[in-house]
Each structure stands twice: as C-alpha cells, then as structure tokens.
Design brief:
The protein is mainly beta. It has one helix spanning about 1-15; strands at about 25-30, 40-45, 50-55, 60-65, 65-70, 80-85, 90-95, 100-105, 105-110, 120-125, 135, 140-145, 150, 165-170, 175-180, 185-190, 190-195, 210, 220, 225-230, 235-240, 250-255, 260-265, 270-275, 280-285, 300-305, 310-315, 320-325, 340-345, 350-355, 360-365, 370-380, 380-385, 395-400, 405-410. It contains 1 helix and 35 strands. It is globular, with a radius of gyration of 24 Å. The chain starts with a helix and ends with a strand.
Length: about 425
C-alpha cells in the first residue's frame, strides 16, 4: 500500500514543476484529422446546444457529439470573436469583414458601410443579461439595444483610446471594456470610469481578455502585466512571476472554470492553471524527448475554454486545437479521510504543524524526485515537523493511519 501511494505522490509532485502539470489526457485536432479550416485558432465558444464553435484564421468549424462540420459562410474569413445571444443565435466578429449575426434565414453582415459599426475589425463580443450586445472593434465599441446602435469612441467619451481588445458584462448588466494601450473602462451612470497604469494599480494598459468570477471579481489578462483580479472598487491583486508562483507574465485569454479554477492561455508557458492561494501549475512543452502525448507541441497558446463537461479546449499558434482532460491524481489513494487532520503553515519556512485525531500516524515527506526526506511515527495529537534542513521547493506530505491515507502539497520557502 505504501509503495503504491508513493508512486502516485511522486507523479503528483512532478506535476507541479514548471515544465509539466497534473496528470491529464491530451488530444490534438488539426486540419489533418478534423474539419478545421486552419490550424491557428483565435476564439472558442460553446453554443446553447453544447456544440463547440471554433474560429480559425481561415473559417469557422463546429464540433458536436464527436462530429465536425465547417460553416461555409466563413470560408477564408479570419474569425476573432464568437458569442451567442439569449435566443441562441451566433454573433461572429471577423478581421476586416465586420460583424456577422445569425438569423432564421441566414446571416446578416454588418460593416461600417451599412451600419454604425465603428470599424470592420471586430475583436470582442459580450452580451448582458438584459439582452444588450456590446461589440468591441479597433475603432471603438457599439452597444446594440433593442435594435438601436450607440457608438462609443474617444470623440464622445473620456476614453484615452478607441481600440477595444476585451469586453465583459456582469450579471447586473455592468459593462467593462479592456483597451489596447488605453486601460480598463467601466460604464457608470455618470459616464465612464477609466483605470490606467498611471492612475491605478493596473499593471498593463493593454487588456486582451476580461472574465467575471462568481463572487463578482473581474479577471484581466495582459500581454506584459500578467494577471490581475479587480473587485470593481479599489482592490487589485496582481499575479506575475515576481509576485506569485505564476510561471508567465504574458496572457492571451482566460477561462473561469466550472470548478472555481482559473485557466490562462499564455504566450510562453502554454496552459497556466491557478487553483487559488499558492497553487499554480502549467502544461507546456517537454524539455526532454517525450512520446506520451501529454505535452504541448508549443507554448504559444492563443485561447482557452472550459466546456460544461469540464473539458479544457485550448489552441496553440499554428498547431491546432487541444482537448485536455485532467485526471484524478489521487484516485489510487485510499479515500477514507483521516479524522480531523490539519497541516499548517503552508507555505512554510522552518517547520509545519500537523494536528490529527487519528492514532498511530505516519508522516512522510517526499521531494520532487520521489526521495523520502523525512519520516516519523507519532501518537501525539499535534506534531511539529522541522523543515530547516530541507532546500526551498515543493514537497508532498503523506499522512497514513491504519488504512487511511491523505497527501498534501507543501511549499518550503
């Protein structure tokens, strides 16, 4: 039993290195084995019928129940944004070919020449619960409400610039727009509140994606500033390589997971996953020859989405679409919980304290190479474990009592 658990813990520990991640399965779709029109994918969306819509540099494809299909209307068009309105119709933003809106009879193409669309390069689309649509372009944004178009640009607002890279509408119909070189814009009753690096804790004035967490916080993705979480008032938390265990400062897109985790498409470290607290890991390329199929072909990730079934879909520049399903890393460890067990502090520097009501407790610490670096047995309800002789790094603490086993990651700093 102990050796079986050790093998699982070693696998789990290895998953937290900067070059690998939690055990997962990975399947790659390209133009060779699917109906993808091109291998560079800029945007993903899940339709109301659970179909996956995939926007490429050369058209739009769908995947439903394992069946691929291409939408001929968008052949040779560069897709930049996909969203679905409350009636289930698709809205598609393109590069140089404007906005396309699905109807019962086909598609309507809106351009600056036949509508109030500010530019023919549509970068982002967001819907509010009240039905309002916000379209972000390189030349400004337009709100479409009950068929009425309202354009917002530097000419009629206090915006610093009109190039819009991201949009998010909250459950209370509050709109947030992320600018390219012009910060974060929030519409209020009196106009627009502007958050800029020169006047706030915003670390980067270019925002490539905006998403909302269930608690109301706004998550921002930036090309040089990393990740920021904003509470909508004055509270900013910035995650980058200097302030956290995040492996990347360059983020393209965000997916707020069904499980509370955050998934980030990074430019240089592949898929970055934030589980909360100090828990970060990433899936990236292998630094050593690998034939397992669990590493990415490249680290330049463009977009990411989690579908209703918990599957992660992500794209790599010029490498197609990745389907990533995380496995239960502790499935081989006895599921019987230890009675009232606690481990603290974590991260720790000099020691940890383990409290438990379980008798005959065995405490084992294992390093990332799978080497046992500490082992003791105790009947005490509280045990202080010294860490002073251990190098800084990531460890796994295994606790065993009778037939019950649990494991917890430990960071020594």
């Amino acid at each position: 039993m102990m050796m079986h658990c050790l093998r699982i813990v070693v696998l789990l520990l290895a998953s937290y290195g900067s070059l690998s991640a939690q055990p997962h399965s990975l399947q790659t779709f390209t133009t060779n084995n699917s109906a993808l029109q091109e291998n560079t994918i800029r945007t993903l969306a899940t339709a109301p019928d659970s179909a996956l819509w995939v926007g490429t540099e050369n058209g739009l494809s769908t995947l439903k129940n394992g069946n691929w299909a291409a939408i001929d209307t968008f052949l040779n068009l560069q897709i930049r944004a996909i969203a679905f309105d409350s009636s289930g119709y698709a809205w598609v933003g393109t590069f140089l070919h404007g906005l396309w809106v699905q109807t019962d009879t086909g598609w309507i193409n809106y351009l600056p020449s036949n509508s109030d669309l500010p530019a023919d390069h549509v970068r982002t689309i967001a819907f509010c619960p009240n039905g309002d649509a916000w379209i972000g372009t390189v030349g400004g944004a337009v709100m479409i409400s009950n068929g009425v178009w309202q354009v917002y640009q530097t000419t009629n607002t206090n915006w610093i610039g009109s190039n819009i890279g991201a949009s998010y509408c909250s459950p209370t119909n509050e709109i947030w727009l992320g600018g390219v070189n012009n910060g974060l814009m929030h519409q209020v009753d009196t106009g627009w509140v502007i958050y800029h690096a020169s006047s706030s804790n915003l670390p980067d004035n270019t925002i490539l994606d905006l998403q909302g967490k269930p608690n109301g916080d706004i998550v921002l993705a930036m090309p040089t500033g990393g990740i920021a979480i904003f509470d909508g008032n004055q509270g900013w938390i910035v995650y980058n390589t200097l302030s956290s265990f995040s492996p990347s400062n360059s983020i393209n897109r965000i997916a707020v997971g069904n499980n509370g985790k955050l998934y980030f498409a990074s430019v240089d470290k592949g898929l970055v996953v934030f589980e909360g607290g100090f828990d970060w890991f990433n899936i990236s390329t292998a630094e050593r020859p690998d034939t397992s199929g669990t590493y990415l072909p490249d680290n330049d990730m463009l977009t990411v989405l989690q579908d209703p079934n918990g599957i992660i879909w992500a794209s790599i520049f010029n490498q197609g679409l990745m389907r990533i399903e995380f496995l239960d890393t502790l499935s081989g460890i006895a599921s019987t919980n230890l009675a009232a067990t606690a481990l603290y502090p974590n991260p720790a520097q000099d020691f940890i304290v383990i409290e438990t009501l379980s008798p005959n407790l065995t405490i084992t610490i294992i390093d990332v190479l799978g080497t046992e670096v500490y082992n003791t047995a105790t009947n005490a309800p509280k045990t202080k474990v010294p860490l002073g002789n251990l190098p800084k790094g990531t460890y796994m603490v295994m606790l065993q009592s009778g037939g019950a086993t649990t494991a917890q990651r430990l960071i020594k700093y």
